[in-house]
TrEMBL record:
The keyword Lipid metabolism does not apply. Keywords: Hydrolase. One of its GO terms (biological process) is nucleoside phosphate metabolic process. This is DNA mismatch repair protein MutT. Residues 38-167 form the Nudix hydrolase domain.
């Protein structure tokens, strides 16, 4: 199938998102207008302590008008690699650094309406440092035993994907069978 991209116009822009309207020619020759968001890359970190607890954050999310429990995450800055952003965000939001980093995966969060790419990392060998929140960040750091995660009513896709990946990986299965 061939799609032809004709004209893309920027409709709105701020620090987080850009809204585009683009004219496309479909494989059947019909021309349509498509609106989508261009979003900066996001990193998210599944940070595990030595005793198999997860470092999570709870913060108010205005779009859904409630507190939200999720793994630490943030935007990738210009000219920053995703791993660098993950290390920065983990320490800024939680006050932890990690000795061991493993990339879990990258994915597009909602490819039908956004080009925003998410990068998930596993962080181990945690060391407590100091939190460095931005002036508009108000969050609570929580340490939750991994075996208790299913009790929580998680609604955050990046957290769910990270947990599923880890729980299905052989390292977790081996650890729990000892």
């Amino acid at each position: 199938m061939k799609f032809k991209h004709k004209e893309r116009k920027e409709v709105f822009r701020n620090d987080v998102v850009t809204v585009y309207n683009e004219n496309l020619i479909l494989p059947n020759g019909k021309e349509v207008s498509w609106t989508f968001t261009g979003k900066r890359e996001v990193v998210a970190i599944l940070a595990l302590t030595e005793n198999q607890s997860v470092i999570m954050v709870e913060q108010y999310r205005p779009a859904i008008r409630r507190e939200f429990l999720e793994i630490p995450a943030g935007l990738v800055e210009e000219n920053e690699l995703p791993l660098e952003a993950a290390k920065r965000e983990l320490e800024e939001e939680t006050g932890y650094q990690a000795n061991t980093w493993t990339k879990i995966c990258s994915y597009f969060g909602s490819a039908g309406v956004s080009d925003g790419e998410y990068h998930l990392f596993l962080a181990k060998g945690l060391k407590k440092t100091q939190q460095h929140l931005d002036e508009d960040e108000f969050l609570t750091v929580k340490e939750i035993p991994l075996h208790d995660i299913s009790v929580y009513d998680l609604h955050d896709p990046k957290s769910i994907i990270a947990f599923q990946y880890y729980l299905l990986s052989s390292s977790y299965c081996e650890d729990t069978n000892k």
